[in-house]
Amino acid sequence: MAQERFRLEVVTPDRSLVSEEVDEITAPGVAGEFGVLPGHTPFLTALGVGALMYRVGGEEHFLAVRHGFAEITHDKVTVLAQEADLPSEIDLGQAEAEKVEAEQALQQLSHESKEYLEVQAKLERAMNRITVATRRG
Predict the structure, then answer these.
(1) Domain positions in the chain
(2) 5, 40, 48, 90: least buried by Cβ within 10 Å?
(3) Does pTM top 0.90 for this prediction?
C-alpha cells in the first residue's frame, strides 16, 4: 500500500516553523525547484531562495526560504534553512520598500563590487518575501 503522507520539518537557526504530516512539497533547490511526494527517493540538496509550498489535503501553505539544505528520506523531509518566514510574519510594505531601496542601490554600484552582490541578495530576499506574502496559501 502506498504511503499517503510524510513528515515535514522546517527549521532555522532560531526556531522551528513547521512540523506536520503533509501530502506534497515543492522547494527552491539551487539547481531549480524540486517536488516531493510520499515515498520519494532519498536525496540531499542545497536550497536557493524562493517559496517553499507544502500541501495538506487541498490546502497549500507557503514559506519564504533562503538558503540551507533539504534532506529527503522515504518518510520525512527536513529543511534546514538559513532564513524562513511565514506569510503572516511578512510586512508587505516593508518588503516592497526594501525592494525599491535595493533596486536603487544596484543602479549606483559596479557589477564587480562586493557590495553589488550583497545588495543583489537583499533584492532577491525582498522579492521572495513579496511573492510569498501575496500568495498566502
Answers:
(1) 6-85, 88-135
(2) 5
(3) no
In the chain, % helix, strand, coil (3-state, to 5) comes to 30, 45, 25
Fold (topology level) of 88-135: 1.20.5
> Residues 5-21: what's their mean pLDDT?
97
Cell numbers representing residue 59 in the block:
490546502
Class of domain 6-85: mainly beta
Task: Label residue 74 exposed, middle or buried (CB < 10 Å: 0-12, 13-18, 19+).
Answer: exposed
> CA of 94: how far to CAs of 2, 47, 50, 83, 107, in Å?
44, 24, 18, 17, 20
- For the chain, how long is the longest CA-to-CA vector? 59
Sheet holding 32-36, edge to edge: 16-22, 6-11, 76-85, 59-72, 43-56, 24-29, 32-36
116 grid coordinates: 553589488
Lowest mean pLDDT among 1-5, 41-45, 64-68, 116-120: 1-5
